[in-house]
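[PROTEIN RECORD]
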Amino acid sequence: MEYMFKFCNLPDDKSTVKMVNEAASRLHYKLKGINLETLDISDYNKKYFGSLLGNLHSNLQRYAYILVWSITKIDVPLNKFVFLDYGGGSGMLSLLAKECNIGTVIYNDIYDVSARDAELIGKAIGEQADYYIPGDIDEVIDFLKNNSINCNAIANYDVIEHIYDIEEFLKKISLISNNNLKVFFSSGANPYNPFIKRKLIKYHQMCELVDREQLFGDKKRDLLEAYSKIRSKLIKSLNPDLSEDQVAYLVTATRGMVESDIKKAVNEFSASGSITLKQKYPQYPSNTCDPYTGNWAEHLMDIYHLRNVLQSENFQADVWRGYYGDSNTLLKCLAARSLNFLIKNSGRHGLVLSPFFTLCGNIAPLSSN
């Protein structure tokens, strides 16, 4: 199984595993032949999708793992299955789903440029999703309701760590379906892996304190100015009578807040001299987000609390360990496979070694993974 992680847990349904593996092989061949420079897509996706193509085998292993678990253990024929690639970015997961001949594939991303580019990339290889929906979860829910569509699975990679109010998002998930539904959200922001955690804390500090230059391929909606500096300007505009010390206090107190919450905090402080609105996860104080969009800088979260949120919404839910894909060198491949063996056989402690975690849920019981 070339396109499945080595030594990972896979579904017992061998025919589905084989089918997804063969689809990934075909998609690999199609994507290898694509020339991004000839497509009318943004510089951002020429750079980002191009980076995925640079290590295509490993990336397809990750998406094959996500997809195979998303479509198994649901009593719905594949030709009637509805798969939602939420926050799809480049659209590679949607492309793989179409290659598997899933009945209905829906792509979504909050960034309209990515939605447009993903559709163009799909056209270029003849693997378009059935629908492309720009917007957040509310736009997706409205679209599905207006078109009488019920999803059977929603999945993504590196999305949930960017959603501003992740708990509210999880509480809305059940609205995308009125029958069988599986969720499979994988994220590289693994707070239990010390190397990942250290790297992300440094990234948080950079976003918070350092201005950056516009580079080729940057996402146009991303800010160049340090988040703390932007919050300082917002706070001063909301109450020009604040002293410099008060502004400095508020800049710190509103770290990790979007503009609407910053306004609430400043108004409360101006009226009472205190703030009751706090960050959701104080155990990770380095977390910070774009003050205008609420897009988190690789949010470190209490992932077991998120599991509990899903469980409160009537899902059987759990947190699973992620695995390493094959690399371009033999030595790295051997190292990755050795780590995968340890991850698979270390129970929950395997998260310390895992490159990502998965928050998964289903209306039916999930086996431990």
